[in-house]
Amino acid sequence: MREQMLNLELILAIVALLAILTAVFFAFLWRKSRAEGAENAAIASSVGKHNEDRLREQLKFSDSLIKTAQIIILVLDVKGRIELINPYMEELTGYTLSEIAGKDWFSTFLPEEDHAKIKKLFQNAVGNIQTKGNVNSIIAKDGRKIFVEWNDKTLQDSHGNVKWLLAVGVNITKRKQVEDELRKNEERLTLALNGANDGLWDWNLETNAAFFSPRWKNMLGYEDSEIIDHPDSWEALIHPDDLMRTKETLNLYLEGKLDKYELEFRLRHKHGHYLNIFSRGNAIKNQQGKPVRFAGTHVDITKLKQVEAALRESEISAINSEKHVRLLLTNLEYVREEEQKRIAGEIHDELGSLITKHLMDISWMQEHPPKNQKELDEKLLEMSKFLVHILGAVRSVASSLRPRILDECGLTAALEGLVFDINQQEKISCSWLEAPVEIELDELHRTIFFRICQEAFTNIVRHSGAKKVNISFRLENSMVVLEVLDDGCGIDFNEVKNQDSFGIHGMKERALKIGGKFGLEMRPEGGTRLWVHVPLQEIEGKQIT
Fold it and tell me: What confidence category does residue 189 fall into, taking pLDDT thresholds of 50, 70 and 90?
């Protein structure tokens, strides 16, 4: 399909190729016969006065065709010297015929690394072994590289001896650029899909044909050949208790009653157990608004569901025990950080639907080639912008889950990033009380200080109504001190005592985990003061700079 789209200009050129070859043949021989005299006399005597007039008219027409044809016309002698180029080639390359007539074609126009290959093709062509569809680049006078697809034919003298080679070429530089851009887009999509590690599915609603990627099948323990690519194969694997709900959701989406298709269900593994699957999809509609194609991704969330179930059980058993609550929060923190690192590395769920839509755009282009170059360029520009959007989404999600700056530049830089973000996104002025001290901490301490500050900022934005926030990170009396002040509405300490207030309890438990103390108090002038003190001796491998 792509070849049909990209070779549009070549198809149009080939329609006129036979006429042009004939025209060039007659015109070139006529010019040669005039120059050589004797051959001209032979032609004149053989065709007679009437035929000569008719021939002159044909030659006049042929010469006009050569001058106006929007394809490259080149004539070489059997030694590869330039005999003729048409005005289009003069305009395209910047050379005039008078500049290059008699010069070697290979050294004048071809990159040095292509000489051997093209000379071999030339020798075959002169030997009446026709070369067809060969593509190579030529170098214009200003250094530009122009890609040309060639067709050639030998020209013979009146004795049947091969004296010239006629080559007709089509400028396919734009086509090559489009091919390169499409190839790069496909490579990007392949890398993104492989990195996401998701299973891909594609369903043609008109033919009921389906495609399940090898990863889709491997996720369930099957080899690619073990599952038939058909919607019935998917339906047969769904847990009986999930089947009706799954089909209802699918039908509601395809009928336009749901804005998006996002669904959790269970699929049977080859070994008999079930996996929890999160599925996202998008449908393409025809001009009548009827869905004709539906594609998306599957993500295995079994481990995540197991962790959630374990946490729920732990929460129930530890509801009246501070010790159990602390263990719960510690485990929750560990699971959260490990899961965020993994997700930040693989970017599963956030990119599935974006990549799928882009993949479907490319598939649509393959089946519905643009009518002209302008429409194709516009589509490519839209796709390139969408890839930039995907790249931005990758960076945004990765940063929110596990800021790279925390590991690469340290805690102080990460805290400065939080201050910058709150100033950018909210109607709150956030600033430092004093220049922060740079303290080198291990990963655990960096993470805990950062998460406490992040949680404090989240609570301020959501609940306090504050207009101004100050932050301090410093050394004081052999203590590492983090302090956050706001001028908001204060805090209800009855709510703080509520065991369901995991935000504040979580900050406290984090501080206790590294041997520190956590405090939250009302300020006399209004608002709240949150502080964390961690003794230096509790920080292993500390280094103050």
Answer: low
Phi then psi for 400, rounded to 5 degrees? Answer: -70, -30
Residue environment code for 336-362, b if the CB has 16+ CB neighbours within 10 A, otherwise e: ebeeeeebbeebbbbbbbbbbbbbbbe
Indicate the residue type of 421. Answer: D
Q: Measured between alpha carbons, how far is 333 from 168 in angstroms, rounded to an integer?
A: 70
Report yes or no on whether pTM surpasses 0.85. Answer: no
Give which of 258, 70, 254, 259 is closest to 169, Cα–Cα. 70
The predicted-structure confidence for 516-532, as pLDDT tens digits, reads as follows 999 999 988 889 999 99
Q: What is the largest CA-CA distance in the chain?
A: 119
**Span 402-419, pLDDT tens digits:** 667 777 788 888 888 888
Whole-number average pLDDT of the chain: 78
| CA–CA dist 519, 493 (Å, integer) | 12
325: which residues sit within 8 A by CB, 6+ positions away? 318, 319, 499, 505, 509
Q: What are the b/e assignments for 111-137, b being 16+ CB within 10 Å?
A: eeebeeebeebbeebbeeeebeebebe
Rg over alpha carbons for the chain, rounded to the nearest Å, is 37
Alpha helix locations (H) across 255-372?
302-317, 322-346, 349-367
Instruction: Report the distance separating Cα 176 and Cα 183, nearest Å.
Output: 10
Question: Which DSSP string do the residues of 107-129 spell out, in sequence order?
Answer: HHHS-GGGHHHHHHHHHHHHTT-
Tokens of 402: 């596990």
Q: Which helix (H) or strand (E) holds 422?
A: helix 411-425
Q: How far is the C-alpha of 489 from the C-alpha of 493, rounded, in Å? A: 13
Average pLDDT of the residues in 243-260: 94
The set of long-range contacts for 160-164, using a CB threshold of 8 Å and a minimum separation of 24, is: 162/78, 162/126, 162/128, 163/77, 163/78, 164/28, 164/75, 164/76, 164/77, 164/78, 164/83
| Pairwise CA distance, residues 231 & 211, whole Å | 9
Phi and psi torsions of 232, nearest 5°: -65, -30
Candidates 520, 532, 529; CA nearest to 495 is 520
Residue 15, SS3 per DSSP:
helix
Neighbouring residues of 543: CB distance < 8 A, sequence distance ≥ 6: 439, 440
Residue 2 pLDDT > 80: no
Residue 469, judged by CB atoms within 10 A of its CB (0-12, 13-18, 19+), counts as buried
Q: Which residue has the higher pLDDT, 242 or 389?
A: 242
Mean pLDDT, range 352-375, rounded to an integer: 70
